[in-house]
Write a structure and sequence with these properties.
Helices cover about 40% and strands about 15% of the residues. The longest helix has 22 residues, at about 305-325. The protein has about 400 residues and is α/β, with parallel strands linked by helices. Bound molecules: pyridoxal-5'-phosphate (PLP). The site of pyridoxal-5'-phosphate has 13 residues, from helix 4.
């Protein structure tokens, strides 16, 4: 510390150095990261008693026991180190075989990169390619990760709205009309969060064909690919395209096997794309959680009855939430075909954010307002049915009389 001399006494004493207080200098790109509309409500709910959450974005059903056992066995066997950067070799093989069989598609291990959840996979895909002058087509509403990631890296978001009156289906003509000379990529989330819409094969094939023709990249988020309630088959991009040149298919164990906290996902893409993503992955999370990857091998290679059982439960809940929304004044619903969300409309002039806040304060039911997911859906509310039918009935016993008293 610096010393100063006292003029009168001649003594020296340490001089106090003053530091100027500066604000943390964030990269301006951080401005693209919004305050999450979900967090705001959930934080308020955490200060209240007797809240019923219809806001949850993760499965509530328990992780199947054989998966937990595989995780614990891996720990006990000392599997606590890093894996290969592309992923645990056994998991790469299991994913190759699983997808190869499911979509009758020839894949190699080099087509796959294991990540820390679909979130990291999306982060890698978007942030490695978004740049000024590049436009990304995204549905409005859409999962809240995509637009901020695109914008953080200088890219531009071009929204294609979907509407409750069309069951939030994506019209391929709308998507094609949105394509222009600057369009670089399309983010396709099927089944969709927050709408629960499942796009049929005809939609996916038409869009992919146009993207291939124009050289537009397709980032397909298929984390809800097993949460399909009405259709016999799911139109994955992996089954709707002949080659992977412009396609990245992203998914994870989080939803299908109730493994959200174990954080394992993946990207399936061309070998060239995986090579680049793999390099980037090493500089972000390096590898996914090792025991979780062993749990993932168990999930994919064991009998899949546990998945069918869970989907059956979610289907019953979907039917229940549709029925309850139909009985609720001012809500216009539809039948979501997948995921575990319904996204009904309020009358067009109503601010869903304001209504959700009042609903939480006055009824203790927490839902997520539409503006958390885009610009065109501020009059919508997202109801998650990742909770029991009994709990949903309790929630709507509060919501229905409360809504009846509103003058919207
Ligand atoms: C559409 C969508 N994609 C990705 C994720 C993130 O999944 P993960 O837990 O695998 O990171 C979620 C989670 O809510 C989601 O809804």
């Amino acid at each position: 510390m610096a010393e100063s001399v006292n003029k009168d006494s001649g003594e020296t004493k340490p001089r106090k150095v003053k530091y100027r207080k500066t604000k943390a200098s964030w990269n301006p790109a951080m401005q693209a990261v919004p305050v999450s509309g979900i967090r705001r409500l959930v934080n308020m709910a955490s200060t209240m008693k007797d809240v019923i959450h219809l806001s949850i974005g993760q499965p509530d059903l328990p992780t199947p026991k054989h998966i937990i056992d595989a995780y614990i066995d891996a720990l006990n066997a000392g599997q606590t180190g890093y894996t290969m950067d592309a992923g645990l070799p056994e998991l790469l093989v299991a994913l190759r075989d699983y997808y190869g069989k499911r979509y009758n598609r020839k894949l190699t291990r080099d087509n796959i990169l294991v990540t820390s959840g679909a979130t990291e996979a999306m982060y890698l895909a978007i942030s490695a390619t978004s740049a000024p002058g590049r436009q990304f087509i995204v549905t409005d509403p859409s999962f809240l990760l995509y637009a901020p990631l695109i914008r953080m890296n200088g890219g531009e978001v071009k929204y294609v709205p979907t509407r409750a009156e069309n069951n939030h289906q994506l019209d391929p003509d709308d998507v094609i009309r949105a394509m222009g000379p600057r369009t670089f990529a399309l983010v396709l989330n099927n089944p969709n969060n927050p709408t629960g819409a499942v796009y049929p094969r005809s939609t996916v094939e038409t869009i992919l064909e146009e993207c291939a023709y124009r050289g537009i990249q397709v980032y397909a988020d298929e984390v809800y690919d097993h949460f399909i309630f009405d259709d016999d088959e799911f139109a994955s991009v992996l089954s709707c395209s002949t080659d992977l040149d412009n396609i990245m298919c992203i998914s994870s164990f989080s939803k299908t096997y109730s493994m959200a906290g174990l954080r394992v996902g993946w990207v399936i893409a061309s070998q060239a794309a995986i090579k680049s993503l793999r390099r980037y992955h090493m500089f972000t999370t390096s590898v996914a959680n090792t025991p979780s990857q062993f749990a993932g091998v168990a999930a994919l290679t064991a009998d899949q009855q546990c998945v069918r059982d869970m989907v059956g439960i979610y289907r019953e809940r979907r039917d229940k939430v549709v029925e309850l929304i139909d009985q609720t004044p001012y809500l216009t619903g539809y039948k979501p075909g997948g995921a575990f969300f319904a996204f009904p409309d309020l009358p067009p002039h109503v601010d869903g954010s304001d209504l959700a806040l009042r609903m939480l304060k006055e009824t203790g039911v927490c839902v997520v307002p539409g503006d958390a997911f885009g610009e065109n859906c501020t009059n919508a509310l997202r109801f998650s049915f990742s909770t029991t039918c009994e709990r949903m009935e309790e929630a709507f016993d509060r919501i229905i009389p409360w809504m009846a008293k509103q003058q919207l």
